[in-house]
Amino acid sequence: MKSILSAIALCCIIPWYGCGTNNTENKEPKPIVKDSALGKIEIYDSSALGIIDSNATIESIGRNYTWAEGPVWIASKQMLIFSDVPENKIYQWNMKDTPTLYLTPSGYTDTAFRAGETGSNGLFLEKDGKLLLCQSGNRQVARMNAPLDAPKPVFTVLSANYKGKRFNSPNDLIEDSKKNIYFTDPIYGLPKGADDPERELSFEGVYKISTDGKTTLLIDSIPNPNGIALSLDEKILYVASSNDKHPGWFAYNLDENGNIKSGGLLLGATDLKEKAIVKQGADGFKIDKYGNIFSSGPDGVDIISPTGKLLALIKIYERRTSNCAFNETKDVLFITADDMVLKVKLHP
Q: Rounded to an integer, what distance in angstroms lies between the CA atom of residue 335 and that of residue 316?
């Protein structure tokens, strides 16, 4: 069933980039490195100086991953966890020099060989301290059934199919204050993508798992839905499309039950190319304490005001950024960028 939605008349400039694996050789992660050569801060509007210093240092806290994704800060443990998707692992960084293995397997728990993106991708920490995972290999959304300080690959399946048909490969997710879970389901995790013989759904969807466990299809018309986020007041659901030919950013107004009542394309490929700010695709993003959008893109993480004004770019050299996460006070930004995980200090 196709979703029929009316477009929201919003004007923003949102830079994005596509996703995909970095198929490099698996190597042991390397320790933290302070390296100003990793990138720089570009200020486009003076108001950005209240968010980030133009001389802020971009630091690597881990290197030599195959493809880092899904960073989440766990305030109670003062540590960052993130996925290495092709390696089927989650790593932890607890303010020491070198990230260490946190959980494996993270997204594929069968013993039979499986090609494609096997591990966890997007991660989310629930308010009660439980870890949610988008599991590419298992093609499901799950909750880790173990304490954060004693992780085990034991999972409670929250949703694995829609009307009896298995998902493609859940990619990113978020939970609202009422414990509704929203997630995207592109085809990226399938070994042969859109043509994979084990694909069961003819579309790539955006779904909601309600508190009663029911899975509802919200959107089936976005090509390659990827990053997902909620506005600070939880009244708008944002979804990024990482489709190379028709990338875009979508915004949907939600009703009091967390269902879509209106919305549609916010920015399309034509707008992006005309602005000459964005290249192809769209990936993960987060909302800061002021409602600004921190958007992963081809050149780094762009900072955009709630009104859609491009304020600054955390430019990363020679790597595409896949996602980002804040610490609990949102004055530190963590960035996953291909084979690296980075850290940038923001103003308090």
A: 10
**What mean pLDDT, rounded, does the chain reach?**
87
Region of residue 224 (left: phi > 0; alpha: psi -120 to 50; beta: else): left
Locate 227 and state its tokens. 């990053």
Q: What is the per-residue pLDDT across 270-280, written as a single tens digit (0 to 9) for each?
A: 554 444 444 44
Of residues 251 and 24, which shows the higher confidence score?
A: 251
Asked if 178 and 258 touch (Cβ cutoff 8 Å), the reply is yes
Strand 321-326 to 181-185 pairing: unpaired
Buried b or exposed e, range 146-183, using 16+ CB within 10 angstroms: eebeebebebeebbeebeeeebbbbbbbbbeeeebbbb
Separation CA 260–CA 222 (nearest Å): 14
**Fold category of 33-345 in CATH:** Neuraminidase (2.120.10)
CA dist., res. 82 & res. 99, Å (int): 10
Do 280 and 17 contact (CB within 8 A), yes or no?
A: yes
The domain locations on the chain are: 33-345
Confidence bin at 172 (pLDDT 50/70/90): very high
**CB 290, CB 307: distance < 8 Å:** no
Question: SS3 for 271?
Answer: helix
Cβ neighbours of 331 (radius 10 Å): 15
pTM (two decimals): 0.87
Q: What is the pLDDT of residues 253-269, one digit of tens each?
A: 999 999 999 998 876 55
- In angstroms, the CA 38 to CA 318 distance is 8
**pLDDT over 60 (residue 162):** yes
Both tokens assigned to 279: 């290249």
Q: Decide: helix, strand or coil at residue 47.
A: helix
Q: Which residue has the higher pLDDT, 220 or 250?
A: 220
Which backbone phi and psi does 315 adopt, to 5 degrees? -80, 130
Q: Supply the DSSP symbol for 91.
A: E
Give counts: helices (H), strands (E), the chain: 1, 28
Q: Which of 237, 227, 285 is nearest to 257 (CA)?
A: 237
pLDDT attached to residue 7: 37
